[in-house]
Design brief:
Blueprint: E1 2-6, H1 12-21, E2 25-29, H2 33-40, H3 51-61, E3 64-67, H4 70-76, E4 79-82, H5 98-110, E5 116-119, H6 127-138, E6 146-149, H7 159-164, E7 169-172, H8 176-185, H9 187-191, E8 196-199, H10 201-232, H11 236-244, H12 265-278, H13 287-309, E9 318-322, H14 337-347, E10 351-355, H15 360-366, E11 371-372, H16 376-380, E12 385-388, H17 393-396, H18 400-406, E13 411-414, H19 421-426, E14 430-433, H20 454-461
Parallel strand pairs: 1-2, 1-4, 2-3, 4-5, 5-6, 7-8, 9-10, 9-12, 10-11, 12-13, 13-14
Bound molecules: uridine-5'-diphosphate-glucuronic acid (UGA).
Uridine-5'-diphosphate-glucuronic acid (UGA) binds near residues 122, 152, 219, 255 and 262.
Length: about 450
């Protein structure tokens, strides 16, 4: 099939390459000429495992090409996937739909034959039906496009896998012919027995925001438990393991730490809540405000712990932040908890050095006031405090003895519960993991934590 994918960000670039991999002829379109030049050369413009290979293969096969023109897309394809961003509107919690609107209206105006426009961007419920009317009014007579909604559930870091082998497909359609086109697009995936839900436009839009709201709620739930654990000296990781054994609860997304970030969960729960108010069901979604607030408190908690380490005064203290990306295997720093905390430490007067295996360039662009180091050893050398905020494998597998020999003080705040505390403590580190009792070497009688379990402190003294 001839397919266009409009918007080649974290979602669209992978979708375009994935569609070509499934055998379609694909034109990726974006207004960013630099990004398009990179993609056309078969190079991934951002860090995503496996994407470079997929792009190179697609471009070499001749099935994957790129353009900056919506007119090209209209002339080339019969199915158009809309993958542009829906960021938070400045000054409000609502989604900013101006990019989606512009693409749908612009594309429809250029159409020369009937086509199917398929929305993939995350939008407030009701948007698809409005866009269908917008497309119909922008198109020339006789070529009014059909519109469907096919939400995307891919996770950054696993985007290629999630695109080629999704765990489910959702087709929001208004008519049988749109469903038939989508079934043809995804024939290879459907043949593997992938669960598929065919529904109306509104349900399809809601599936996406409901899924992200549930994930955010699950994370904030375990982070609320972490707060309680901190108050009584309990261990949230054991608690998560134990409740996670119950198949009705499940262990996934119960990793307590500095909380969620990125370009999706935060802005999606805010936009959903705002939409709920517009629909007169604000109360039903009010809990999402608490989910958001709990998430913010975790960032503050890390700042408080760092300050407590220096009796409340961070001025001039050398703090190394491990991680800048909002999660490992990504260079995405949008609403990154790591960068948020790093900035906060800087604002409190600390001399901050940030290390990240992939996200330093992006981080430097948005937070030029921070110090950066490309090499892990250089980053930690002379540090008075380490703060781990993105659980890259490189950090989880780092040798704590070697790191201890490089820092000035072997004290770490583990903001992701990523470190093996037994190993790190044996190597001389005082480990302050969120939601867990402080773990200090037996010879260190003064762990800096203010909420340490009395039992553990006695143990430390003993
Ligand atoms: C999320 C959803 O997981 C995808 O299904 C969805 O398609 C995507 O948003 C989207 O809307 O486009 P993503 O933003 O890539 O995917 O990241 P997640 O893996 O969901 O992680 C989000 C944040 O939650 C990260 O900062 C991560 O560190 C944090 N997290 C995750 C936790 O703090 N604890 C956990 O247990 C899991």
């Amino acid at each position: 099939m001839k397919i266009s994918v409009i918007g080649t960000g974290y979602l669209g670039a992978v979708h375009a390459a994935g569609m070509a991999e499934l055998g379609h002829e694909v034109l990726g379109v974006d207004s960013d000429a630099h990004k398009i030049a990179e993609l056309a050369a078969g190079r991934a413009p951002f860090h995503e495992p496996g994407l470079g290979e997929l792009l190179a293969r697609g471009v070499a096969s001749g099935r994957l090409s790129f353009s900056t023109s919506l007119e090209d897309a209209a002339a080339f394809a019969d199915v158009h996937f809309v993958c542009v961003g829906t960021p938070q509107e400045p000054g409000s919690d609502r989604a900013d739909l101006r990019f989606v609107d512009a693409v749908v209206a612009g594309l429809a105006a250029h159409l020369v034959r009937p086509a199917l426009i398929v929305g993939k961007s995350t939008v407030p419920v009701g948007t698809a039906r409005r866009l269908a009317a917008l497309a119909a009014s922008a198109a020339r007579p006789g070529v009014a496009p059909a519109l469907a909604w096919n939400p995307e559930f891919l996770r950054e870091g696993f985007a290629v896998e999630d695109t080629l082998a999704p765990d489910r497909l959702v087709f929001g359609v208004d008519d049988a012919s749109s469903e038939a086109v989508l079934r043809e697009v995804y024939a290879t995936v459907l043949d593997r027995g992938t669960p598929t839900h065919v529904t109306d436009l509104e349900t399809a839009e809601l599936v996406k925001v409901a899924a992200n709201s549930f994930l955010a709620t699950k994370i904030s739930f375990i982070n609320s438990m972490a707060e309680v654990c901190e108050a009584v000296g309990a261990d949230v990781t054991v608690l998560a393991d134990a409740i996670g054994e119950d198949a009705r609860i499940g262990r996934k997304f119960l990793n307590a730490g500095v909380g969620f970030g990125g370009g999706c969960l935060g802005k999606d729960i805010r936009a959903f809540r705002a939409r709920g108010h517009e629909l007169g069901v604000g109360q039903a979604l009010e809990f999402l405000a608490e989910v958001d607030a709990t998430n913010d408190r975790r960032r503050q908690r890390v700042l408080d712990l760092a300050a407590a380490r220096f009796d409340g005064d961070l001025v001039g203290r050398r703090v190394t932040v491990l991680g800048a990306a909002f999660k490992p295997d990504s260079d995405d720093v949008r609403d990154s908890p790591a960068l948020h905390v790093a900035r906060g430490l800087h604002d409190l007067g600390a001399v901050v050095t940030v290390h990240d295996p992939a996200a330093v360039d992006n981080a430097r662009r948005v937070a030029p006031q921070l110090g950066y180091a490309d090499d892990l050893g250089d980053a930690v050398a002379g540090a008075e405090l380490l703060v781990l905020l993105t659980e890259w494998r490189q950090y989880r597998e780092a040798d704590p003895r070697l790191l201890a020999s490089l820092v000035e003080d072997a004290v770490v705040v583990d903001g992701r519960n990523a470190l093996d505390t037994t190993l790190w403590t044996a190597a001389g580190w005082t480990v302050h993991a969120l939601g867990r009792p402080v773990s200090a070497p037996v010879w260190n009688v003064t762990p800096f934590v203010e909420t340490a379990s009395p039992v553990r402190q006695e143990e430390a003294v003993a």
